[in-house]
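Sequence in, structure out. Go.
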Amino acid sequence: MYSRAVRRGRVPRRDAEPVPCLLELALLHPDPDDMDWLVPTSPQEVMTRLLRGMYDEVSASQRRVGSAVEAVERYAGLGRQVRPAASAAEGPAIRVLDGLARIQAAMDEATQACTTEVLTVQPGGIRREAELSEGLHRALALRGRGVRMRDLYTHVARHGQGLLTYLELMGDAVEARTLDEVIDRLILFDRTVAFIPANSDRTMALELRHPALVAYLVTVFDRLWRLAIPLTAPLPDTGIEGISHREQSIAALLAEGHQDAVIAERLGISVRTCRAHIARLSETLGAASRTQLGVRIAQAGLDGPQHSTTPLTLPGQESPSVR
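Output:
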């Protein structure tokens, strides 16, 4: 439309109605002799205006670059005046990583620098294959360099085929153990750098390089590791017919007064699954209410790490203490 206006000198206003940007950008303007027609602004004037705008943008960018350089020089000068305890190569003792991209980049960097050992705690129950695939490239790179890995999961993770496939793929480079419940996610590289979540949805993380903090986390991991059961070994029997190891764990947490949602989160299962286990516990122990279930849990010795050696009398059997 603008080309036609330049060739002919003017165009009817109605022809330009589908392209109002021509008027908004001042490429066309009303003919003072006849308002039903539009005449074009000369291409030379348009080009001059365009170049002026580009020049202003470039000038503004140059000013921003200059301000950024001045700021960097100012803060660099402050850094020379106050030397940190750690060397520049070690970086800050605690660094906040905001966003998944920064977290992944920091993890990749730590993976590349790792030479001997990786320790991880993976809460949340059954690991989804997408989660396992996300870090597979790092795990394979570590295995290729002879790095040993030890992973802690909840007992629920034993039922995930994705984890079993992952461990089979990694071979003897990875050793896995499980617990009823574990701490929040933790990854330790060479006992020198650790990563932990910094918010509930794990879109932020802390990179820890302070020797005391890292040593403390290594101690926590080692103690959990000694309590954990190798993935290749079966879970211990509860000694009570009809009550599984998971239901024993749920019973102990119920005895502590925890709500269903809290129990489910700590054991890495859904609330629905948790309630199904509680229903089976109630049926097995002959409890008609949550209050009675608590009493039966205590009588059965399920309210602690070890259940009582006193045989449990189920409903229908005579007992002087269970009614």
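Check: The radius of gyration is 34 Å. Confidence is low (pLDDT under 50) at residues 86-90, 306-323.
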